[in-house]
Design brief:
This protein is an alpha/beta fold and 239 residues long. The chain has 8 helices and 11 strands. The longest helix is centred in the middle third of the chain and has 15 residues.
């Protein structure tokens, strides 16, 4: 999932971002409402974690802007007040969820994952491509019953490809969905990650290269998976 954290207390924003990245999410941060608005306008986020009490452009105003943009982004508001009237006011603005500070980080993660499922088309609890299975909730990957240990980025790439149901996913989209705003758009990191992922998944090959377009897992749509003769990686598609 791609997450935006908008929080003017920078240490808190950075701590939330670090924790969510450890959970395998791609996270961007903004420390004021204006910056948050700019980022939300150019990037499709699954969930925005939004402090209500921001200086300048308030969290309320930013929430309204996100809602009026027509984006399917979900918003969870953070606030120092847990009063019922404040929760009602935040939800009335269009926020999807509301969490009072201080909060348990595990609860924030659970709420973000729940909202993320609502911001994207419904996916099966376990993603399957022939003998390959990926369980997003337990972050477990097996092939023919054999456990496969993946890095967070490898897991994220595989999850995006399997969720695409056999459709082609470009390098740019993988970079956007699995990494964050700090990723260099001209980097070879997507190609390298796919290469290491292929090695760990073993033969016969699962990930197919569509030259000039990106990658796909055909068997996720019930087609035959790519074999060992899969074409070479296309490298970054952006020049």
């Amino acid at each position: 999932m791609r997450i935006l954290v908008v929080e003017d207390e920078q240490p808190l924003a950075d701590a939330i971002a670090r924790g969510l990245r450890r959970e395998g999410m791609a996270v961007d941060t903004a420390y004021d409402g204006e910056s948050g608005h700019e980022k939300a306008a150019i990037t499709r986020y699954d969930v925005v974690v939004l402090d209500r009490d921001l200086p300048g452009m308030s969290g309320d105003a930013l929430c309204r802007e996100i809602l009026q943009s027509g984006a399917i982004t979900r918003v969870i508001m953070l606030t120092a007040s847990g009063a019922v009237e404040d929760r009602v006011a935040g939800l009335s603005l269009g926020a999807d969820d509301y969490l009072a500070k201080p909060f348990a980080f595990a609860e924030l993660v659970a709420r973000i994952r729940a909202l993320g499922r609502r911001s994207t088309p419904a996916a099966p609890p376990v993603l399957v491509a022939e003998d390959l299975e990926l369980d997003p909730s337990s972050r477990n990957v097996t092939r023919s019953g054999r456990q496969i240990e993946l890095t967070r980025k490898e897991f994220g790439v595989l999850e995006v490809l399997l969720s695409a149901g056999g459709s082609v996913v470009s390098s740019e989209e993988l970079l956007e969905r699995v990494w964050d705003e700090n990723a260099d758009p001209f980097t070879t990191t997507v190609r390298v990650t796919v290469m290491t992922l292929r090695k760990k998944l073993g033969d016969p090959g699962v990930i197919e290269t569509v030259v000039g377009s990106g990658y796909r897992v055909p068997s996720a749509a019930g087609e035959k998976s790519a074999g060992p003769d899969t074409p070479a990686d296309p490298g970054p598609l952006r020049r």
